[in-house]
Amino acid sequence: MRRLPATIKRFFDAHIAPREAEGAPAPDDEPKRDPLALAACALLLELAHADDEFSDDERHHIEEALTRHFALPLETARELMELAEAERRQAVDLYQFTSLITARYDEGQRMVLAEVMWRVVYADGELAKHESYLIRKLSNLLDLKPGYLAEARKRAVGRVD
């Protein structure tokens, strides 16, 4: 089993461990953090950096996805982005993120993630060569069929326009 880096462990210890030890559920404004959110965020950040530019629009799309899909307050989403960025930079490959998502997300949830990925890619209005390659690679690692990826792209482009 892979050990969590110290910064991620501190994040989970600060936000999860106290409530779990008390046996109390997390209040609505501070939902339980999930390693899936970290993995999904790391993939979104990888896509955002694929064209060597991390724009404000890309940042906004990722923040929006984290707040909406994981029910995180904006400040917590930003903190999670910092942790995911550190984890992404230390990662040898993307399999550590995609394997966790594939194991725990059903096909529908992976499709939603694919749509979010396309929205991040198209945040700057264009599809760079590296982004196209990376999203195809991620779709394979996430076990998404090509037809599903195309459908997610159509939905994402419809929302961007």
Strand content: under 5%
- Overall CATH class: Mainly Alpha
CATH homologous group name: TerB-like
Helix content: over 70%
Query: How many strands?
Result: 0
Largest sheet: none
Name the helix and strand elements from N-terminus to C-terminus, one letter apiece.
HHHHHHHHH
How many domain regions? Answer: 1
| CATH fold name | TerB-like
Instruction: State the distance separating the first and last CA atoms.
Output: 43 Å
Corresponding CATH architecture? Orthogonal Bundle
Rg over CA atoms, rounded to whole Å, is 16 Å
Verbal overview:
The chain has nine helices and no strands. It has 161 residues and is mainly α. α3 (35-49) packs across α5 (74-90) and α3 runs parallel beside α7 (107-121). It is globular. 33% of the residues are buried. The model is unreliable at 15-32 (pLDDT under 50).
Please provide a brief summary of the model.
The protein is mainly alpha-helical.
Architecture blueprint of SSEs:
Layout: H1 6-15, H2 17-22, H3 35-49, H4 56-69, H5 74-90, H6 95-104, H7 107-121, H8 129-141, H9 146-160
List key phrases describing it.
single chain, mainly alpha, TerB-like, 0% strand
